[in-house]
């Protein structure tokens, strides 16, 4: 995470992005990478950790080493807790002040599009609760949900647990993992033969693919959902992790609001965000929210009751969400400096990768020699991952766990510098052995 005083080491993440984007096939050589500024990574996690530490142990508020804005934020958050303690219960939908802070964050993000705290629910596991709202497991015809391929396994498992029918639609790898409406239509037509499709799940920016949708693509998807009367589940937890110069994140809510009243007032949408992902990456805090858009009042009230069946969301996670929604501003004591480094990773044989534009993961395609495929007694990418783990201690996930086209092979790994170096060493040796 670097030194919070000097800012040294905080450009390392930018370096890694450049290295990943240089993993191209031999026919796609790219020149020297340009320096890019990642504004979303310019805020050090030290601020968040200091505030949370002071909330958990208020005696730290007397410590002169903590910046003034850290103390002020911790005191403000503790005032919202009964007895000034993070151990107290809160409202089942989240602390009112934090919901208000989140709604202001959404309004800023979307250029002034209004957001109401009444439509925001702070929960850990909010996607599962939304699935309970949408899926009727006791119906004679299964409820269907369209999901992308590849997608992360935990969402697939959540659908299976709720008794939903999974309707896969394939992202186009050759065009940077783009979402194509014709593929959605094809998948929906196939799904309607065996189930009742009610929802479309979108992961944007993508996990594990690292892609991001253009505004035009989002408009096309929304029109499709309007025509087919599908509820949109927009997983936007990596929205703060956008790297490419020519790339911008557009929320589904913002685009929907600007498409004319016929569509903007009718398409139902649930938008998810979380501190467990994104540039904070504090996975164990389990703090996230869902914003509901265009739900019938009676349905929203039923959703409220569903969210209230669980006790309050983790208080520390709620506080982290407040910090994510309202980070230090330029001029605040905790606003750090940020340094950049430019470095390009050498190409590797037998591997190609779409440019990483957003998110924390990359999903390169592995082109195994016939000898390696013939030798494997399991999915070749699973064998690759097992050998990588045994020889280097590096744990990556095989593409077969996320879904991929027939006879294609991938791996998903986190964008960590050490991981890239170990992968490079292993991959070179592996390809040489089976050439």
Q: Nutshell version of this structure?
A:
With 435 residues, this protein is an alpha/beta fold. 37% of the residues lie in helices and 12% in strands.
Report on this structure.
This protein is α/β, with parallel strands linked by helices. The chain folds into three domains: 12-37 and 346-434, Alpha-Beta Complex (Aspartate Aminotransferase, domain 1), CATH 3.90.1150.10; 45-79, Helix Hairpins, CATH 1.10.287.1970; 86-325, 3-Layer(aba) Sandwich (Aspartate Aminotransferase, domain 2). Helices cover 37% and strands 12% of the residues. The chain has 15 helices and twelve strands. The strands form three sheets. A seven-stranded mixed beta sheet has the order 1-7-6-5-4-2-3, sandwiched between helices. The protein has a three-stranded antiparallel beta sheet with strand order 9-12-11, with helices on one face. It is globular, with a radius of gyration of 23 Å. Belongs to the class-I pyridoxal-phosphate-dependent aminotransferase family. Alanine aminotransferase subfamily. One of its GO terms (molecular function) is pyridoxal phosphate binding. It catalyses: L-alanine + 2-oxoglutarate = pyruvate + L-glutamate. Its cofactor is pyridoxal 5'-phosphate. It comes from Cyprinus carpio.
């Amino acid at each position: 995470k670097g030194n919070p005083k000097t800012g040294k080491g905080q450009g390392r993440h930018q370096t890694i992005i450049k290295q990943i984007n240089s993993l191209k096939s031999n026919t796609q050589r790219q020149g020297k990478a340009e320096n890019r500024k990642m504004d979303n990574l310019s805020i050090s996690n030290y601020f968040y950790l200091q505030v949370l530490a002071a909330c958990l142990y208020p005696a730290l508020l007397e410590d002169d080493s903590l910046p003034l804005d850290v103390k002020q934020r911790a005191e403000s958050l503790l005032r919202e807790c009964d007895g000034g303690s993070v151990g107290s219960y809160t409202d089942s939908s989240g602390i009112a002040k934090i919901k208000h802070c989140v709604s202001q964050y959404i309004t800023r993000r979307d250029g002034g599009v209004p957001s109401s705290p009444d439509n925001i629910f702070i929960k850990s596991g909010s996607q599962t609760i939304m699935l309970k709202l949408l899926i009727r497991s006791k119906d004679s015809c299964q409820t269907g949900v369209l999901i992308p391929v590849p997608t992360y396994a935990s969402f697939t498992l959540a659908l299976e647990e709720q008794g939903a029918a999974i309707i896969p639609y394939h992202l186009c790898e050759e065009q940077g993992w783009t979402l194509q409406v014709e593929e959605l239509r094809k998948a929906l037509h196939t799904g309607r033969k065996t189930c009742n499709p009610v929802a479309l799940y979108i992961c944007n920016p993508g996990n594990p693919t690292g892609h991001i949708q253009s505004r035009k693509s989002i408009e096309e998807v929304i029109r499709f959902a309007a025509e087919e009367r599908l509820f949109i589940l927009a997983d936007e937890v990596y929205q703060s992790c956008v790297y490419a110069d020519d790339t911008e994140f557009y929320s589904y809510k913002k685009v929907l609001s600007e498409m004319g009243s016929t569509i903007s007032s009718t398409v139902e949408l649930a938008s998810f965000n979380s501190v467990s992902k994104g540039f904070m990456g504090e996975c164990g805090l389990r703090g996230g929210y869902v914003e509901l858009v265009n739900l019938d009042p009676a349905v929203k009230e039923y959703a409220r009751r569903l969210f209230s069946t669980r006790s309050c969301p983790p208080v520390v996670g709620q506080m982290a969400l407040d910090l994510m929604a309202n980070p230090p501003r330029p001029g605040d004591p905790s606003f750090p400096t940020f340094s950049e480094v430019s470095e390009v990773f050498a190409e590797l044989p037998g591997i190609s990768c779409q440019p990483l534009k957003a998110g924390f993961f990359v999903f390169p395609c592995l082109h195994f020699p016939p000898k390696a495929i013939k030798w494997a007694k399991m999915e070749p990418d699973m064998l690759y991952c097992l050998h990588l783990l045994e020889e280097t201690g590096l744990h990556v996930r095989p593409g077969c766990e996320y879904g991929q086209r027939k006879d294609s092979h991938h791996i998903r790994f986190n964008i960590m510098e050490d991981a890239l170096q170990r992968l490079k060493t292993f991959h070179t040796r592996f390809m040489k052995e089976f050439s």
